[in-house]
Amino acid sequence: MNVKTLGQFIIEKQADFPYAKGELSRLLRDIGIAAKIVNREVNKAGLVDILGETGETNIQGERVKKLDIYANEQFIAAFKAGGEVCAIASEENDDIIPIDSEISKSAKYVIAMDPLDGSSNIDVNVSVGTIFSVYRRLSLSGPGTLEDFMQRGTEQVAAGYVIYGSSCMLVYTTGKGVNGFTLDPSIGEFCLSHPNMQTPKEGKMYSINEGNYLHFPDGVKKYLKYCQEEDKATNRPYSSRYIGSGVADIHRNLIKGGIYIYPTTTKSPNGKLRLLYECNPLAYLIEQAGGKATTGGKRIMEIPLTELHQRTPLFLGSSSMVDKAMEFMAKYSLEKV
Ligand code: P6P
Fold first, then answer.
1. Which of 4, 53, 208, 288 makes the best surface tag, with the fewest CB within 10 Å?
2. What is the number of the ligand 1 atom nearest to the C-alpha of 209?
3. Ligand 1 center to residue 274 CA distance, Å?
4. Are 225 and 167 contacting, i.e. CB atoms less than 8 angstroms apart?
5. Distance 229 CA to ligand 1 centre (A)
6. Domains of the chain and any CATH numbers
7. How far apart are CA 222 and CA 229, in angstroms?
8. What predicted TM-score, i.e. pTM, was given to this entire model?
9. Residues 286-311: pLDDT tens digits?
10. pLDDT tens digit string along 156-179?
């Protein structure tokens, strides 16, 4: 079987970017290295004392699991060693991490990440993920600044996720389609397993935490009832599939078709998910795969970022399903979306 590794693929695709001098390629390889290290620890989390809680809480007010900290540290170390970014933003850090080192002084990019999304599932052996988003720096030199991150999602130059599940996969885009790589532990390489991923236009699965039903906008309530109605012509009722780990739900929906919704609720009036390092990268990826990502009203990637940890509602997945959900939101929900 002719195996194509991530490194070979990146070099091959570098020709797509005639002006690139390999920096983005090296950054993608740095991500792959850190992902392999994190995967190794996630796979044996049950065996060593990195389970359980550190007793701290992060800016989200969530109790932090040790593996969160470990993953954050590994990715930060990989980016510092690689020298391709001048600043990092992370869900685990209140403020940006400017990088001021000799090796990074000519860095052209900044990177935002959720180092271990869905980490509340670690102790119960459910898939978790890393989400990342790459922008060109706006500042001219020196360590990166907060302003370097205050860009719309449309300005991303790369985005993707790593899913630590039954296998470890890296799925990313640089604006020319989406490609998926599966880690072959026997050779320690990510190998191209899902070339040119396209998400089905229609799907039969919807992912949402229905425990919040009473607090959903009316448009979401009406859409959920639509999903549950009997109608053979449109393959309804759909199936409800919600893992509680966004990367896992979205990865499944990307491959099989479906919609993931985290709307506003009374507890999360602006939605729960973060624009910079969750919604924008997932939106870039799903659009490159032929899907859609909106707030239920506006395109995610056009929302201005004004705060580092800004939240937004998210409707993401198969284009026809997102369109249908937006019809219900337009008709029944006057809330700002
Ligand atoms: P809830 C994990 O914390 C996360 O950010 C997503 O990965 C996941 O889909 C969602 O939040 C789960 O949130 O409120 O349904 O537990």
1. 53
2. 15
3. 11
4. no
5. 26
6. 6-194 (3.30.540.10), 205-336 (3.40.190.80)
7. 11
8. 0.94
9. 999 999 999 999 999 999 999 999 99
10. 999 999 999 989 999 999 999 999
